[in-house]
């Protein structure tokens, strides 16, 4: 079974989030380990997290956490220190929940020297991984280019990991809308991108895919998600992506608008059909 699911709320707790995901037909899910608007560490309910881990393990359901939006690995000084402590807290929660890792956006830097931005990211990654000994990984996510070109290419992801002090603690989360919006994925050229990623050794470290359609064309640098098959990427290109051998066991997470029933159930079923799980004319 393709491991497709969606982002779900943790309002009722981590175990309840997993149950809700499964009720919509998900084989994977994503959640915010704490308030996504703050860097403040959370004193979490470890027993609830461990019940989530056990429940998912019994049912073969994969999960990933998504770090707070203010986390910017390209930051400096006290801000970078606070963000590192925030991500360490997220990793602790993800580990307790049995999750693959914590998604962190690559980072944006507005200084005069772009290389300093990359140095900051590497320093930040090293500061977090030096203090982390669990199995959950930092999952660096590619960016759409709406805040600048940094973090849009597979080369950047691979290079940061290769230079890191603890590369085994770093994986990747690829967002399909970001790939398309940035222009890294051009219409009709998915295989070209996939082969480029193979040459870089990227696929073996991709732990999750944010499976999002795009409201805007390739190269627009606009990060606006559309429901699967209802945007500028569309069915044909998603079918090509879903046929990529390296993605067969990777969790596919929908961060798209919900359907009329308030869930992603219809889109989850659509992705399963397009991946070849069942015959359908849709």
UniProtKB/TrEMBL annotation:
Give the main EC class: hydrolase
Q: Which domain of life is it from?
A: Bacteria
Cofactor(s) needed, names only, are:
Zn(2+)
Q: Which molecular function terms from Gene Ontology are attached?
A: deoxyribonuclease IV (phage-T4-induced) activity
Does the record's keyword annotation contain Lipid metabolism?
no
Q: Which InterPro entries match?
A: AP_endonuc_2, AP_endonuc_F2_Zn_BS, Xyl_isomerase-like_sf, Xyl_isomerase-like_TIM-brl
Q: Which family does it belong to?
A: Belongs to the AP endonuclease 2 family.
Protein known as? Deoxyribonuclease IV
